[in-house]
Each structure stands twice: as structure tokens, then as C-alpha cells.
Amino acid sequence: QVQLAESGGGLVQAGGSLRLSCAVSGRTFSASAAGWFRQAPGKEREFVAAIIRGGGSAYYADSVKGRFTISRDNAKNTVYLQMDNLKPEDTAVYYCNVAEKLHTLVVARGVGSFDAWGQGTQVTVSS
Asked: In the prediction, which pLDDT does 109 show?
């Protein structure tokens, strides 16, 4: 099964920035779309951002558009999420995942959308 390892989370004040990383193994990363999701206490895991296999275009949830930037380095089997102007409502555990098609990531709803997840990385934004 695919292995996913998220890192880079932490505690920041509102308006601050964080850069998350996700290392992928067990799958041909360069042939897969990749994305980020997040889950806050008491809420469903939700889509945040996704990027196509070639890295040429990306799609973002309305809640983060203009503040977050997704990118990838296929040579390193890694996808990144640059988060700027963080808000308290961004507080959540952030997860990454991969899929054959971008659509699969964008329309995903809840943890059951994928067979495997990594441990996630906690992002906490203080108000």
C-alpha cells in the first residue's frame, strides 16, 4: 500500500506561515495527482488543495484560495503545501494523499475516500 509521511506542522500566530511536506512511497508518484486534506475536531476530513501529475495546474478549496500554494517535486516524491496568512480556522491535522486523477482528490469526502492515510501533521493557529 502507498506510504505517506507528512511533516512541517506546528504552532503559529494568526497571519503567520508554515510549509508542509509529504513524502510518498509505494506508488509511482510522478504518475499520480497529489493533494492535501485537513480535519478539525468534530469535523469531516476535507479537501484543501490538489495538483496534477506534471505540476502545471492546481485546484484549491475556496476557504484557502489565495493563501495556500501546492507544489511538487517528482524527483523527490514529495508534495508541498505553502500556507500563508494563516487563520485560526485553519487549525487542523493536515494529511496528504495521491490518486490517479485530480478529480478523485477534489471530490473526496471524509476519511473513507481513500484506503490509506499517513499520520498527519498538526497545524495550530493562535488567535
From this structure: 87
